[in-house]
Design goal:
alpha/beta, Nucleotidyltransferase, domain 5, 2 domains, two-stranded parallel sheet, 4 helices, 10 strands, rod-shaped
Length: about 190
């Protein structure tokens, strides 16, 4: 038979106690004592990436956000054109709003004579013109800074279907005086 050349190492009697003490020392280092801690942020980055994708997908990309209510009943249309990002003038039964900023009050389908230049029979609505001129100036400043932004003179009108034609004419006239020469009318799609 071949000789067994294995050597055996004898463990000290207190080996188990030394292993337990080493484990305790290692655990103390992880619980706030000891040196600097390493933080693994891979899982956190995964969660943030998923949240970012979700938020970007759920973000509204429509350039016009219209909230119909009792004061604003928008006409229906079968048009399939997509809205563009323009200055939006909303004419409701009780007010005129430009880009979600209230401009003036409408009462019985009319703007008060004190809000018009030239009295009750005039077409020029002073506060509407002021806000629209500010919007044009803002677009011109953006155009000067960013050449991809162009002021094209387009204004989107969102109007209650029961507003008198005279008020529509006044709004369009006033917008025309503020350098808006093209108009789009927002409707609710009844197709499909």
């Amino acid at each position: 038979m071949a000789e067994d050349k294995r050597t055996y190492e004898y463990l000290p009697d207190n080996y188990e106690e030394e292993v337990l003490m080493a484990k305790k020392r290692a655990n103390k280092g992880h619980k706030g004592g000891g040196g600097p801690q390493r933080v693994n942020i891979n899982s956190l980055m995964d969660i943030l990436t998923i949240m970012l994708v979700f938020l970007l997908k759920s973000y509204a990309t429509d350039p016009i956000n219209i909230t119909p209510g009792p004061d604003l009943d928008i006409p229906r249309s079968t048009s399939m054109l997509q809205p563009a990002a323009t200055v939006t003038v909303t004419v409701a039964k009780s007010s005129i709003v430009v880009d979600n900023e209230p401009v003036t009050v409408v009462k019985d389908g009319k703007v008060e004579a004190s809000q018009k230049r030239g009295g009750e029979d005039a077409y020029f609505i002073i506060p509407l013109n002021k806000i629209l001129v500010e919007a044009v100036e803002k677009k011109r400043r953006l155009e000067a800074i960013n050449p991809t932004v162009k002021f094209d003179g387009v204004c989107t009108i969102v109007m209650d279907k029961e507003i008198p034609y005279r008020l529509l004419t006044e709004v369009m006239y006033t917008a025309g005086q503020a350098e808006f020469s093209n108009f789009k009318f927002a409707t609710v799609s009844s197709a499909g």
